[in-house]
Amino acid sequence: MNAEESEEIYVLYQQLIDAWNKRDANGMAELFTNEGELIGFDGSLTSGSNEVFSHLKPIFEEHPTPPFVYKIKGIRKLDSDTGIVRAIAGMVPPGGKELDPSLNAHQTLVAVKNRGNWQIELFQNTPAQFHGRPELVEKMTNELRDIANS
């Protein structure tokens, strides 16, 4: 993957995170393909940009969703029109000052190039609980804390 394509896929991920942090359901939904899927932290599955919007709008209206702090762990291209972003993310709950380790997640974004523009085909936000391995929770939280404090 050349640096320009890597940057374009990174920007797509950044736009998604920015839209979440602004609680902008339309901004998030517009980034998905017509068949794109969103798998949320609780396992909710939505398919298509319209359904993504319909799913996120009431969440943003009715819940104080915390913003993401993230770190890209890798971006790679699978073929000329498909790329993957892998990241870790954490959240500081509303009114809080510290990351809540129970909200840590692995995030995976599959991007496809559609008519010259990168769009999201799949975004999955998986809890990073590391059952029985508290040292991994602490390691991830510290890594994200370094980003949050910089």
Architecture overview:
There is one protein chain. The protein has 150 residues and is an alpha+beta fold. It has one domain (3-148): Nuclear Transport Factor 2, Chain: A (Roll), CATH 3.10.450.50. The protein has four helices and six strands; from the N terminus they run ααββαββββα. The chain has helices spanning 3-21, 25-29, 49-62, 134-148, and strands spanning 32-39, 45-47, 68-79, 82-91, 105-114, 117-127. The chain has a six-stranded mixed sheet. β1 (32-39) and β2 (45-47) form a beta hairpin. The longest helix is centred in the N-terminal third of the chain and has 19 residues, at 3-21. The model has no long low-confidence stretch (mean pLDDT 93).
